[in-house]
Amino acid sequence: MDAEDLKVATFHSHYGAIMFRKRIGDGQLRPVPRSLSSSCGTAVFFSSPFDSSMADENTEAVYVKDGDGWRRIWKA
Question: The pTM is what?
Answer without folding.
Answer: 0.90
